Amino acid sequence: VSQSRYTATSAGISIRGNRIDTAFRKGIATYAHETGTLSDFEIVNNRINGCGLGGLYISGISGYRNTSNGVIKGNVCWDNYVNIQLEELQACTIEGNIARSSSGGVGIGGVDLSYCLITDNVVDRSYTSGIAITKDTLESIGLTIDGNIVTNTNISEGAANPGISVSYLEGSVIDGNIIIDPNSHQNYIVTGK
């Protein structure tokens, strides 16, 4: 990690094989703020359970997409408010993770993502949508969401959340996902700008 008065750059960081139980806020969280960056990182094979705000939270600064070239793979997150939350990522792979029983949000959530691959994840018993991608300041572009298995989402009473929900998405592919969801009113929902 290098840091000066104006920038902080982190690269080549590996977070792997950790067990985190019952954190007050987030189990594993990364932040790249303002002019800083986080790149060439991996978060692999961690077990995260019972965290108040989220199991795994990876974020850049709104409007910058300054978190890039990361691999988030093989993590198991359960009984967290939101299991996996991704914000402002570019060219990252989110693969082979298991997200079970989110107590208040989505299994895997993404905001302002670009050129990311979300594949071969298993999402079960999300409070709202299984996988939800939306925008804050930038549209999500160039995403591939494929090969995911989403089951038993929308465990909140009375809401109409789909297995996979995307909005403000350009040039992306959603293909080959399996959604088994008796609680949902629809399995996919894609909304425009």
Quick structural gist:
It contains no helices and 28 strands. The N and C termini lie far apart (38 Å).
Sequence of secondary-structure elements? EEEEEEEEEEEEEEEEEEEEEEEEEEEE
| Amount of beta strand | over 45%
Judged by helices, strands and strand pairing, the structural class is mainly beta
Task: Work out the helicity level.
Answer: under 10%
What is the topology, as strand order, of the major beta sheet?
Answer: 3-7-11-15-18-22-26
Shape, per Cα inertia axes: globular
Q: What is the CA-CA span between the terminal residues?
A: 38 Å
Low-confidence stretches: 1-7
- Rg over CA atoms: 16 Å
The largest sheet, given as strand count, sense and whether it forms a barrel, is:
7 strands, parallel
Number of strand segments: 28
Number of helices: 0
Structural commentary:
- The structure is a single chain.
- With 193 residues, the protein is an all-beta fold.
- Helices cover 0% and strands 47% of the residues.
- The protein is built from no helices and 28 strands.
- It has strands spanning 2-3, 8-11, 14-16, 19-21, 26-31, 37-39, 42-44, 47-49, 54-59, 67-68, 71-73, 76-78, 84-87, 89-90, 93-95, 98-100, 108-111, 117-119, 122-124, 131-134, 140-141, 144-146, 149-151, 164-167, 169-170, 173-175, 178-180, 188-191.
- The strands form five sheets. Strands 3-7-11-15-18-22-26 form a seven-stranded parallel β-sheet, with no helix packed on it. The protein has a seven-stranded parallel β-sheet with strand order 4-8-12-16-19-23-27, with no helix packed on it. Strands 5-9-13-17-20-24-28 form a seven-stranded parallel β-sheet, with no helix packed on it.
- Strand 1 (2-3) and strand 2 form a beta hairpin.
- Residues 1-7 have low confidence and may be disordered.
